[in-house]
């Protein structure tokens, strides 16, 4: 077990993102001072935990100096002015090596930055580096043939989760207040849970998804990894909103005020510890039950409800995921198969063999799941459940170690997130619920009504102080 760093506010970089920007604009400290400390921490974290593919030393410092000039010249500054952040190696950024964790990408340097990152930069944010991901972001463990394994900041023998593991590690270690991630099956929420930070899968279309070959994919989301709910809200304020770059982006404006304010008094929550079929690690169960007790103490009504889902949910999501991998990355096999992760190769081949009728029939399962949730929302404001069924596993394991059905019929799965990628319109937030008896973080997942991202974040904000790991 390795000691997690003290998160006491010993440097202005440890302040919330909006306070960093306010401090820079008011002249209490400079963007160069903030970004310089962020880069120093990034180098240190990379040396021990392998969380970055590149660190943008020169570019970030140049942007910081430009931000300080803007302040001295009295120019209008954005709400994230001078705030450092990180982006995932899956997401194109102009002028930066972007590999998707794969040798098959060569040394691709995009000529355009993805809209999500452009919006963060337009709000004043400064990109300090690109973070590690498994090849094509396929796994719950962040390790790839190209970049190796990223380690968990709470225990260097454990995984930080995936596929946004580099971003989660970077946030947990205080390098940046928030980082960009992507979530197709839990890839924001899993590492958020394992690293003890906040992670949001927004409702489909709240942040335009512009980095895939298709704009009609309906399981993929951008989302923040953040130190606090407030920092996740700051990310959403900057990154969300409609754009013709994504036909499925929603014509909804994000309300930071609504997301930050709220009370649990009289709110009704359903809780399912297992979604009807998971085997839950006893340490996770204990933390969750203590979290529920504290939520009740805040005035909420929390009822444990039966769920009747089965591992068909995970199996059919996996079928969709294999087709996704095959459709978008399958052409790389011909030239690069020998340098690719064998699991990725197997998934692509499985996707190529998929039956189109079976693929379409997954919608029947999704329909039944939605009807269950719609019925639940007639009585409750949100569903609570663990983010993951276990605490962070060994860095040497893989997803295939978590697909067994136990003799008692329970599913020995890792995450409890992919069900809610099959219901993409429902926002799903992972927030720290506490630490297990083994010292590792446990995540609480809050699943809200369609497009009610602000409400889910407001629930998290009301719970944060009571459940804080820190």
Description of the molecule:
Helices cover 36% and strands 14% of the residues. The chain has 470 residues and is of the alpha+beta class. It has 2 domains: 12-260, Amidase signature (AS) domain (Amidase signature (AS) enzymes), CATH 3.90.1300; 268-307 and 382-467, no CATH class. The strands form 4 sheets. Strands 6-8-7-14-15-11-9-10 form an 8-stranded mixed beta sheet, with helices on both faces. A 3-stranded mixed beta sheet has the order 1-3-2, sandwiched between helices. A hairpin with a 5-residue loop joins strand 14 and strand 15. Helix 7 (229-239) packs antiparallel against helix 14 (453-467). 54% of the residues are buried.
Q: What would a concise description of this structure say?
A:
The chain is built from 14 helices and 15 strands. By secondary structure, it is of the alpha+beta class. The protein has an eight-stranded mixed β-sheet with strand order 6-8-7-14-15-11-9-10, sandwiched between helices. A three-stranded mixed β-sheet has the order 1-3-2, sandwiched between helices. Strands 4-5 form a two-stranded antiparallel ribbon.
Write the layout of secondary structure elements.
Blueprint: H1 17-26, H2 31-49, E1 52-55, H3 57-72, E2 84-88, H4 115-122, E3 126-131, E4 143-144, E5 148-149, H5 165-172, E6 178-183, H6 189-195, E7 198-201, E8 221-226, H7 229-239, H8 256-260, E9 268-271, H9 282-297, E10 301-304, H10 312-329, H11 333-336, H12 342-352, H13 356-377, E11 382-386, E12 404-405, E13 411-412, E14 428-435, E15 441-448, H14 453-467
């Amino acid at each position: 077990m390795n000691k997690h760093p003290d998160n006491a506010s010993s440097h202005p970089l440890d302040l919330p993102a909006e306070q960093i920007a306010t401090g820079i604009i008011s002249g209490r400290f400079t963007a160069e001072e903030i970004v310089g400390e962020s880069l120093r921490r990034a180098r240190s974290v990379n040396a021990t935990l392998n969380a970055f593919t590149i660190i943008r030393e020169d570019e970030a410092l140049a942007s910081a100096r430009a931000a300080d000039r803007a302040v001295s010249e009295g120019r209008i500054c954005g709400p994230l002015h001078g705030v450092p952040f990180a982006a995932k190696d899956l997401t194109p950024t102009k002028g930066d090596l972007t590999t998707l964790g794969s040798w098959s990408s060569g040394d691709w340097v995009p000529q355009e930055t993805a809209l999500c990152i452009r919006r963060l930069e337009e709000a004043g944010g400064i990109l300090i580096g690109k973070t590690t991901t498994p090849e094509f972001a396929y796994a719950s463990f962040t390790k790839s043939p190209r970049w190796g394994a990223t380690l968990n900041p709470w225990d260097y023998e454990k995984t930080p989760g995936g596929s946004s593991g580099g971003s989660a590690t970077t946030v947990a270690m205080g390098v940046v207040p928030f980082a960009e991630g992507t979530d197709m099956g839990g890839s924001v929420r899993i590492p958020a849970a394992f690293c003890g930070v906040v992670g949001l899968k927004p409702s489909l279309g709240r942040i335009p998804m512009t980095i895939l070959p298709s704009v009609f994919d309906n399981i993929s989301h951008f989302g923040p990894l953040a130190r606090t709910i407030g920092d996740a809200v700051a990310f959403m304020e900057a990154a969300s909103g409609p754009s013709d770059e994504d036909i499925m982006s929603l014509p909804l404006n994000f309300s930071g005020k609504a997301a930050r304010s709220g009370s649990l008094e009289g709110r009704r929550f359903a809780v399912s510890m297992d979604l009807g079929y998971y085997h839950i690690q006893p340490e996770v169960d204990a933390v969750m039950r203590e979290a529920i007790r504290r939520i009740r103490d805040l005035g909420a009504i929390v009822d444990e409800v039966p769920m009747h889902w089965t591992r068909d949910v995970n199996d059919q999501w996996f079928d969709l995921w294999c087709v996704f991998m095959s459709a978008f990355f399958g052409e790389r096999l011909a030239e690069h198969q020998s340098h690719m992760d064998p699991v990725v190769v197997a998934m692509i081949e499985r996707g190529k063999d998929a039956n189109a009728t079976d693929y379409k029939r997954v919608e029947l399962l999704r329909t039944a799941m939605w009807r269950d949730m719609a019925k639940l929302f007639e009585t409750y404001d949100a569903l609570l459940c663990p983010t993951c069924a276990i605490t962070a596993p060994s860095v040497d394991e893989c997803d295939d170690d978590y697909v067994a059905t136990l003799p008692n019929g329970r599913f020995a799965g890792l995450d409890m997130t992919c069900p809610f990628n099959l219901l993409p319109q429902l926002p799903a937030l992972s927030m720290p619920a506490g630490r297990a008896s083994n010292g590792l973080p446990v995540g609480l997942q809050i699943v809200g009504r369609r497009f009610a991202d602000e409400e889910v974040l407001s629930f998290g904000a009301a719970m944060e102080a009571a459940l804080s790991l820190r």
